[in-house]
Design a protein that fits this description.
Layout lengths: L20 H11 L10 E4 L9 H13 L3 E5 L4 H13 L4 E4 L3 H10 L2 E3 L9 H7 L3 E5 L17 E3 L4 H15 L2 H15 L1
Parallel strand pairs: 1-2, 1-4, 2-3, 4-5, 5-6
Length: 199
């Protein structure tokens, strides 16, 4: 499935019509009862969360994430510990955090709306990575052969990678991605690299 052929998303798009992707963000924001704010980055955790997926690192980064002007989507699968954690967070931050059902249509809407996908372990074996890339969702992940770190000088790369799996490196990669997201031309270049790497 690609966003060019997906009948379940609000607006189909390709790597050459990425400006249309924003309609999907707006549609999901409205569906969730959030203000339709196209400039606010939507970050997703596409695989749900458990210890194996890097839960401890995610918890270390979470307080910083909650201070940022982002919206966070997490897929409703994973361990009960993280299910309880995100249920409580979604209650506390109802206009910032949402848990999406682990169902195909909701998953496709998530990818169509999201700007960034967070991975806390090497995503090379994750089925979620090629889906995220194909929908133009830019990954942030530990260093992996599955992705190329974005280089702003060469305008190359399709993700924001960090070498050591610790809170500071992960958070620095998130900040780097969010700062780059403020520049639409640069961001669309990365999104194109994402989509072209799998399509």
């Amino acid at each position: 499935m690609t966003p060019a052929t997906d009948q379940k998303i609000a607006q189909r798009y390709t790597s050459s019509t990425l400006e249309k992707k924003g309609k999907n963000k707006q549609s999901l924001q409205e569906e969730l009862g959030w203000p339709a704010e196209l400039k606010r980055p939507v970050v997703c955790i596409p695989g749900g969360m458990n210890e194996k997926l890097g839960g401890a690192l995610m918890e270390a980064v979470l307080p910083g994430l909650l201070q940022m002007d982002i919206e966070l989507l997490i897929l409703g699968k994973g361990s009960s510990h993280y299910g309880s954690l995100f249920t409580e967070l979604a209650r506390t931050y109802p206009h910032k955090i949402a848990i999406l059902p682990n169902e195909e249509v909701a998953i496709r809407k998530m990818y169509a709306a999201a700007d960034i996908a967070l991975f806390f372990e090497d995503p090379k074996e994750c089925e979620e990575l090629p889906l995220a890339l194909s929908y133009g969702v830019v990954p942030i992940a530990p260093s992996t052969k599955a992705l190329e770190d974005y280089n702003p000088v060469q305008e190359a790369g399709n993700g924001f990678l960090y070498e050591e799996k610790n809170m500071w490196n992960a958070f620095a990669a998130i900040v780097r991605a969010l700062e780059t997201n403020k520049f639409p031309f640069d961001w669309r270049t990365i999104q194109k690299h994402c989509m072209e790497s799998v399509n």
